[in-house]
Amino acid sequence: MTDFHDMKTRRIPNWARWSWRELRSEWPLGYTLQCPGFVSLLHDGDEEGYGEYVEGNTALVPQKELAKAEYDPIDDDDAETVDVLVRQIEPAHRLLLIRTYVYKRGRPAWQDLDKAIAALVRLGDETKLVHARMRER
C-alpha cells in the first residue's frame, strides 16, 4: 500500500473521527478545528444535529453518534500525528481536509483533494527525513 493510498483511505478518516470525537466532547476546540470559517459550521444551539430532511418518501434523521460496528477503533496516536501534519500544511489544503473529512461538507474536486493529501504525505516524508538526520548527529 502506498503512503498516499494509506493516508487517503486509513489515516485521514481515522484523524477525522478522532477530531470529531474531540470536537463533540465537552473539551475545548483544538487549534486545527478553529480555522476561520468553520466555527460557523458548529450551529450554535443546535445540539440535535441538522434536523430532519426528506429523501423520496422517507424522512431521515441524522445520527447523533457514529455507528460503532462499522468503524475500526480510533488510533489516537496516529490521529495526533496526522493532526500535527494538518496544522502545518498551507491553509487552503487544511480547510479543504477539515471541511471534507471532519465536517463532511461539500464535494471538492478530486484533484484538489489529492493535492491536499499529497501535501500531507510530502510533509510526513520530509519530517521523517529530518528526524533521521537529527538521529545521525
Describe the structure.
- Helices cover 54% and strands 4% of the residues.
- A hairpin with a 2-residue loop joins strand 1 (53-55) and strand 2 (58-60).
- It has helices spanning 3-24, 76-88, 91-102, 110-136, and strands at 53-55, 58-60.
- It is globular.
- With 137 residues, it is mainly α.
- A two-stranded antiparallel ribbon has the order 1-2.
- It has one domain.
- The model is unreliable at 26-32 and 42-53 (pLDDT under 50).
- Helix 3 (91-102) packs across helix 4 (110-136).
Question: Which features would summarize this protein structure in a list?
Answer:
4 helices; 137 residues; mainly alpha; globular; two-stranded antiparallel sheet; 54% helix
What is the gyration radius calculated from CA atoms? 17 Å
Q: Indicate the overall shape.
A: globular
Report the sheet-strand fraction: under 5%
Helix content: 40-55%
The SSE order reads: HEEHHH
- Average predicted confidence as pLDDT: 76
Main-sheet strand order equals: 1-2
For the record, the count of structural domains works out to 1
How many helix segments?
4
Biggest pleated sheet: 2 strands, antiparallel
Number of strands: 2
In angstroms, what separates the terminal alpha carbons? 32 Å
Overall structural class, as computed from helix and strand content, comes to mainly alpha
Q: Low-confidence parts, pLDDT < 50 over ≥5 residues?
A: 26-32, 42-53
